[in-house]
Amino acid sequence: MIELVSVSKSFDGVQVLKGISSVFKEGECSLTIGKSGSGKTVLMKSMVGLNEVDGGAILYDGRDFTKMNFKERRAIRKEIGMLFQGNALFDSMTVEENVRFPLDMFSSITMKEKTDRVNNCLSRVNLENANNKYPSEISGGMMKRVGIARAIVLEPKYLFCDEPNSGLDPKTAIVIANLIKELTVDLNITTVVNTHDMNSVIGIGDKVMLLHNGEKHWEGSGKSILKSDDEILNDFVFASPFLQELRRGVVK
Q1: β strands within 116-189, DSSP E
Q2: CA distance 147 to 144
Q3: Which residues of 231-246 are buried (b: 16+ CB within 10 A; e: fewer)?
Q4: In which region does residue 26 sit, left (phi positive, over 0), alpha (psi from -120 to 50) or beta (all else)?
Q5: pTM for the complete prediction?
Q6: Torsion angle, alpha carbons of 70, 72, 77, 80, to 10
Q7: Sequential pLDDT tens for the chain (252 residues)
Q8: Rounded to whole angstroms, how far apart are CA atoms 94 and 130?
């Protein structure tokens, strides 16, 4: 579980996060949504220590990340998996080498154990025969799955996904969203996702938090959005006329 307690952050005198409090539970997909500039990326970077917060606390299973020194934070980071928006795969490495990279950096297990772990993770994302391929030889959806395999290879307790469906076609985006949900439940991970993909929000959002002007404006399940009468939430989620009609039940 990750708990945010009145987290605030400013840049050059401009307050970007204004007292954000929330709880992200294990075994659940918690999605953060909001317009560009609402504070989503700043919040995620703060949660993993890329930004230092100005106030409040970030607790990992009761451990206050904001009060830790570098060595203490390193121990927490070993429990974190990260799926980057641009995949961040190494072009010169094979799929297997990319997935193994965190094990080479942070693990002392044998090469055989590393290989077994990598193969297990590739199997979990349906890439059993892609070990020797390079990123340039696979599709965008496959690269995203490689990124997911790498993110879970250290068997993390916490998984952060930054726009995991960015650049994917709608069908592949649904596959990736469902895969993240499946792994979250099967591995009992605390998963936090930044997204603009409304299919993901409705489909896998156990909890959804809307940031608006740096504040937590709304929070609830993905399914409950369909019944919400919050004007700011609805203006964001159902921005297109098609989705507005769908919500009204006009489009069958």
Answers
A1: 158-162
A2: 5
A3: eebbebbbeeeeeeee
A4: beta
A5: 0.91
A6: -150
A7: 999 999 999 999 999 999 999 999 999 999 999 998 899 999 999 999 999 999 999 999 999 999 999 899 989 998 999 998 877 899 999 999 999 999 998 888 999 999 999 999 999 999 998 999 999 999 999 999 999 999 999 999 999 999 998 888 989 999 999 999 999 999 999 999 999 888 888 889 999 999 999 999 999 999 898 888 999 998 888 876 666 666 666 444
A8: 9
